[in-house]
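ok so i was messing around last nite and threw this chain in just to see what happens. nothing serious, just curious
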Amino acid sequence: MSHAPGATAKSAGLPMTSKWDPDKLEREQQELIALEQEPLVTRIRGYFRLTGPAWMQSAMTLGAGSAVASVVMGASFGYQFLWVQPIAMILGIAMMSALGNIVLTKGERAYLIFGRELHVSVAFLWALTTVVATIIWHFPQYGLVGAAFWDVANVAGVANAEGSRAMEYAVKFLSGLLILGVNIYLVWSYGSKPRGIKLYETFLRWMIRIIIIAFLVVVLKTGLDWGALFKGFFAFHLPENPKQWTMILGGIGAAVGINMTFLYPYSILAKGWGQHHKGLARFDLVMSLFVPFVILTSLIIIAMANTMDPQGVVRSDLSPVSAAASLQTLFGANNAIGRIIFDLGFMAMACGAISAHMVCCGFTCCEMFNLEYTPARYRMFTLVPAIGLLGVAFDRPFWMPVLASAIALTMLPVAYIGFFILQNKRSYLGDAVGKGWKRAAFNGVLILAMILALVGSAIKIKGGVWDKLFPKKPQAEHSLVAPGGSRTV
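result:
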């Protein structure tokens, strides 16, 4: 495979890319060139067969965090804020589209581009933040797996002996080991050969389809309020108090995780994609990331809205598994099928996210330590986040999520600014920076994404870091007499 202009032998592509059949890649490129001249419907039909990398981004973002956020939003506010998730993901996809344009134009690995065109310290912090955040965010994925398996076991009649949690721990750890074993096989296949990449991407497609089907069954059973659904997406209901604004802005600004921004450019290079794949890459982001993300998060929100009697107050006490338990009688008295379906959906969400985290660490650690990529090194580094298996039964130490929030949410706006600079650096990209009103409009979306990332990160850092390190003292409920006789509340 020939390297893109400007790419050095060291920086171009990935070693696994050379294993793709050059003739097959050439035929694919010619097909894409021909598709660009075809009508929209024909082009879409052709693109559908070739999608892939964005499914990994979809799996990564549709994990425990999305499950919790969607459950809380639906149970708290019903259909009102259905518009938030699509807007958040549109802004995130715009940034990843810019990153895809940068990488596909030159065929170089993103870490090396950042180090040379911006600064080596920016590249290193980007990679370090990705690894640390991925490890810490790995714990709640296994926590969701363990909780969902244990809930299904409860439905089947399995319970702890009085005064002991041995059975619970056994079920949770066995479920975690099962999921880890499945993901090791798939993730290691991804790093070895094109057939393995296809196998892994097929696995992700089916995981996401299973998740969507599971939650769709629940929504169809509970029914839809079509008027409220339309208003939820298109009336753009605005929050009424600071706490709601905090939740909405925080969600919009941080819809795309820092690890997603690092993984995406490597996943498209691993497919052997180049300049002629730019249109396909944009289509892939829309159909393999935006559409599944919006459908799935919306289904969870709707299911919770239909079953939890939203009162307009943030229900931060809810967990995905407790939400599943609320569906115990959905299909009739003493029929737990609704509860089991929800649990299976959450298991699939966590399983997909775990695999994407492992792939991410496999690429990132090789780059961060300036090690030549080999399948053996990739496999070793995919196990870096596996310590998260302990999350099936144990909470993370207090400092872990605080640290992850502090560094990841600080770095995300920095990474966005870096993407914006590179997207507009004509000395590097040449004519690929774009021109005319399309360039101006795209830059406008990128600027909006940067602003909201800054605002969202600030909100999340305040709630996830500052308020935890320096909690406010609870205010007295009764009036107190201050020195000098004046009364304060």
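not much to say yet. DSSP finds 19 helices and two strands in the chain.
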